[in-house]
Amino acid sequence: MIKKISLFASGGLLVFALMAGLPIKAQTTGDPILTIVSPGEGEQISGDQVDVMMTAGNFVVVDFFENTANKAGEGHAHFWLDDATLSKDSAVMHTDTTLPYSFFDVQPGTHTLVAEIVQNDHTSLNPAIKKTITFSTTASQPIAVSHMMNVNGMEEQMDSIMGEVHEESAANTATSSLFPPINQQTIVYAGAIAVAALMIGFVLGESEMRKKIAPKTIKKTIKKK
Length: 225
Known about the structure:
With 225 residues, the chain is an alpha+beta fold. Among the domains are: 26-138, Sandwich (Immunoglobulin-like), CATH 2.60.40.10; 143-177. The chain contains three helices and nine strands; from the N terminus they run H-E-E-E-E-E-E-E-E-E-H-H. The protein has helices spanning 2-20, 145-178, 184-224, and strands at residues 33-38, 44-46, 50-57, 60-61, 74-81, 92-94, 101-103, 109-118, 124-138. Strands 2, 4, 5, 6, 8 and 9 form a six-stranded mixed beta sheet that branches. It starts with a helix and ends with a helix.
């Protein structure tokens, strides 16, 4: 009877919270579970960037700046890469399990990653929840030789085309020096010379015509007398 009353009261409180619009935080049950999703154990990564993804079961990951007081089932994660001290000061702190944390400039070779979920004040849980994995990184692959040959071939073609363009430009420059471009002033001078030539020709032609006509007129006048 008492158990039924307790369940009824709990259900009533839940309904009241929903109706009032009060925030309800998911409750965690059981021991916290930490899983490193990536990189995987023994994975080989090409390049100097390592993205770490993790999940936390029965544990709520929160921002320790906003949540300073310790609370059961709540906290954040610490990461250590190739760090034997595993101290709070040397740890990388991660507060978002939906996004990876990226390590940059990781040198080629074998590496050890340690992850731990901790309380809001950065202290370990009791018992401590840690995971350790080992992985390796290699230098980025160089560009294929065949690709470089194709690029060199394209550069040679471009050099050849540019050489032809320069030769044609030089030839046009030489031609233009032999035949300078015609400007407006040159056209005006040419027009004036042409008009003057026409006028001179007209005057000379009229003079010749007069010479031919004048003797005939004189002969006709003499006959009439």
